[in-house]
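ingest -> validate -> predict -> emit
validate: passed (alphabet ok, no gaps, 430 aa)
predict: started
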Amino acid sequence: MNSRIHQGSLWQLVGAVLAIASLWSAALVLAIFSLFQVLVNDQVMEAGSMSMAAAAFFLAGSLCIPSAYYALCRLFGWQAFDSTHSQRRLQPILLILAFPAVLGLGYAAAQLERLSWILLPPIHVLAIGMPVVLVLYLAVRRLPVGSSQRVWGVFDSGLVLGPGLILVFELAAVIAFVFLGAVVVASQPDLVDQILSLSEQFSRQTLTQEEALEVLGPFLQQPAVILAVLAFAALVVPMIEEVFKPVGAWLLVGRRMTPAEGFAAGALSGAGYALFESLMLSGGGESWMWIVLGRAGTAVLHITTSSLMGWALVQAWTHTRLFRLGLVYLGAVLVHGTWNAVVIVNAYLTLSTEWPTSLMPEGIAGWIGKAAPFILVLITILMLSVLFWANRRLAAVAARRVMEFVPANNSQDSTAMENELEKARKEVNL
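emit:
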């Protein structure tokens, strides 16, 4: 058993060190290019995008340090600081009260065109991170999360390994879609001529964003194109992501774990993924605040679905409940796909205002555009409700497990049993 623990700790240490080196190197390169864009090319907008990406990579690398620390302590038998105690003392009300102030600061910084590239990134990291921390707290409160080494190892797996695996498989899916698209296009000479005409227009002149949208409009309005985009974003992407988001829970397969521990592992892994994705997909400018609020909703979605997957995974490998795992996976894909479909359709309707014609009647398009935010809010509320229900149910089960440590008769060593009971109470944060 000790050799297995040490082998796992060694792999955790190696992975964390490689992640830190890679992420910090990327952050340094992006920071240098950002500075170059400002000082040499006077391109503040491009510099802002690079500096925000640099901040994201730097934060991700920094969050891998605890994982390396705890793995190193386990390998050498050093006494390590227990971070779970400080995590239990988190006051969620402070995050809730501080979040609007951070949003206000970020909105003000985003309006400063010449300074936003340097002022907005640290505020952006804070604004993205606060909802993730809050939702994660709601997911794992009163549940056994395991040792500090496990907590950080699972979280960092979702932060770094999850996005890496998802990127590889989504790129493979893109290649497959492009190949299928080429086969379809080759069978339609008119569509081939249209694509060649578009490529010539883009190669002959530099078009503005509005001009490019006007040129691409007829092509993007093709039903086959719209269907392909929706199929990829609302079906293929969720199918891939819902498998790999709880990668931290997958890495614990084979260990003796309770459903509550699986749920917590899924939440930690999903939180890591949600943080990285939101940091990388966000942008600046006047829409910064609305993007951050939208990403808070995706944090709820990712953490909830990953938590449920972690729960189902433990039941699958401990009680062979594979049918339950399949149902949970399909449910997660359905909710995630619905979210993506609403976002894609709303983006399409926004772009279509720049086109002379639209496939959708103006009245229906306007109704869908107005309904989209409410649908996303409804999904967020639904996911929060599921998260509260699951946490409450699993916490009750964990509490009953604590009481099982009470001695069955007075002849047992009461001091030893009291020590075990105290350990169990701490484990479930009672």
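Residues 407-412, 424-430 have pLDDT under 50 and may be disordered.
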